[in-house]
Amino acid sequence: MANIKLSAEKLDELKAVCKSFNNDKGELINVLHKAQGIFGYLPAEVQEVIAKELNISVAHVYGVVSFYSFFTMLPKGEHPVSICLGTACYVRGAEKVIDEFKRLLNINVGETTPDGKFSLACLRCVGACGLAPVVLVGEKVYGRVAPEGVKDIVAEYAN
Q1: CA 59 to each of CA 5, 26, 51: distance values in angstroms, whole numbers, following the listed order
Q2: Cα(87)–Cα(52) distance, rounded to whole angstroms?
Q3: What value does the CA radius of gyration of the chain take, rounded to a whole number of Å?
Q4: Cβ(128)–Cβ(140) under 8 Å?
Q5: Is the separation of the CB atoms in 155 and 105 below 8 Å?
Q6: Between the chain's N and C termini, which has fewer beta carbons within 10 Å?
Q7: What is the pTM of this model?
Q8: What backbone phi and psi angles, to 5 degrees, belong to 3?
Q9: 142 - beta bridge partners?
Q10: Which residues pair with 137 in a beta bridge?
Q11: How far is CA 77 from CA 55, 72, 81, 112, 148, in A?
Q12: In this structure, what is the dihedral angle of CA atoms 96, 66, 25, 34, given to the nearest 10 degrees?
């Protein structure tokens, strides 16, 4: 994993988050959510600071980060694209939608475009089964997405 340089400003912000939870190890998940909001992901350097501030092992922090699918140790694109692979979405063609995103963005699931604009992920049921197949770009929901509609979604964010 590449070492990132934590700016003094972001480091102070991260320590302030830990302090806002009284540096309580029982608040680890809340601290991780806030930290991911600050950095966009949870690289090793951020996990080490959290471990130190909450007086817990880095292994414990890593265990929580790697267990919960919401947390990521890889940077996401400016526009994270997530395709639902829940049962309803899958049977209504989500796999073809994924293939079209992969083709248009020229990346695989779990990757980010070289310009940092888009990242591609799959997730389980988002609870919008009536709109299957569902695509999320950030927090915006697109329902009944067909492979032919993928180019319009990408174009919306390309500029």
Answers
A1: 21, 15, 9
A2: 41
A3: 18
A4: no
A5: no
A6: C
A7: 0.69
A8: -75, 135
A9: 135
A10: 81, 140
A11: 32, 12, 8, 6, 23
A12: -40
Tens digit of pLDDT at every position of the chain (159 positions) = 445 678 899 999 999 999 999 999 999 999 999 999 998 899 999 999 999 999 999 999 999 999 987 898 988 899 999 999 999 999 999 999 999 999 999 999 989 999 999 999 999 888 999 999 999 999 899 999 999 999 999 999 987
Pairing of β 135-137 and β 140-142: antiparallel
Contacts of 83 (CB under 8 A, 6+ apart): 89, 94, 97, 98, 101, 120, 121, 122, 123, 133, 134, 135, 136
For residues 147 and 100, the answer to whether their CB atoms sit within 8 Å is yes
**What's the token pair of residue 81?**
């694209």
Query: Contact at 8 Å (CB) between 77 and 116?
Result: yes
* Structure tokens that stand for 68 in this block: 């919960």
| Cβ atoms within 10 Å of 123's Cβ, excluding its own | 15
18 is in an annotated binding site: no
Supply φ then ψ for residue 62, to 5 degrees.
Answer: -60, -40
- Contact between 54 and 25 (Cβ < 8 Å): yes
Residue 122 annotated as binding? no
Which residue, chain included where needed, has tokens 């009536």?
A: 130
Sequence length of the chain is 159
